[in-house]
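Pasting as-is:
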Amino acid sequence: MEKMNKKTEEEKKEAASFSGSGFSYKFLLSPWITEASTAATELNKYVFKVDPKADKRQIKKAIEDLYKVTVTAVNTVKISKKFRNYGKTPGWKAGFKKAIVTVKAGDKIELFEGV
């Protein structure tokens, strides 16, 4: 009887990470607007720069909560850091993670409409 009333540790963690409406901003950093990503909007694909620690489930939930669309697929890409010379000073350009989000046919994210 007690097992039916108690949540498992995994369910508690998942519920805690998705509670509240403000969690979306932790995972989605900014939209990634380039010529290629703008052309992909015709295929219902939108590109976002995301937190490197975010996984696909968190990204999907964040997009659905923030933009009120149905996400059908999430693909992620890690861009590695790159060496650059800044004048005489050598340095590294920071790496990042981006997500390519496919939404259901007919759904649109209004943020990309004016671009």
